[in-house]
Specification:
alpha+beta; 151 residues; 4-stranded antiparallel β-sheet
């Protein structure tokens, strides 16, 4: 007889602390974050930033958020967060443009984040997003696993 070890269900707002911890743990080995966050590893700044981002994702009707929960313990063991981006009209991607490292006017960096490096990352990501306009795709935000479990 087979038993289900995990259940898959939507993430809910009460899962935010667990999700923020998953994000923090997954981003620690990311080399760029050592430049992005001041006073590395600055757990408080990272958790605050990830929590704010996830709160925005919960409010976005286009974001789909799921969790895999251990059927025995009830612990969240994995999460998947995606957005489906559908083009309004077929458009050729714009050419890649190099940009300056200064942040756009009115753009403040979160507390605990290196403003110059944050500006570079934001400009690079904005260019990638522009290049993806007009292409039907899923954008994976996060696919995270909790502590490994035997069984």
């Amino acid at each position: 007889m087979s038993t289900t070890k995990h259940t898959i269900s939507p993430l809910v707002a009460t899962d935010l602390p667990t999700l923020a911890q998953f994000l923090f743990a997954s981003q620690l080995p990311q080399p760029t974050n050592q430049f992005l966050f001041t006073n590395w590893p600055n757990e408080a700044a990272q958790i605050a930033l990830y929590t704010t981002g996830m709160e925005k994702s919960f409010a976005d009707p286009h974001v789909e958020m799921y969790k895999a929960t251990d059927a025995t313990s009830g612990e969240i063991v994995a999460t998947l967060i995606v957005t489906r981006s559908r083009p309004q009209a077929a458009v050729a991607p714009p050419p890649l443009v190099e940009t300056a490292a200064t942040p756009p006017a009115g753009t403040a960096s979160p507390t605990g984040v290196n403003p110059a490096f944050h500006a570079v990352l934001k400009r690079m990501l904005a260019d990638v997003q522009k290049r993806m306009e007009g292409i039907d795709h899923f954008r994976k935000h996060h696919f995270l696993f909790g502590k490994s479990r035997e069984g």
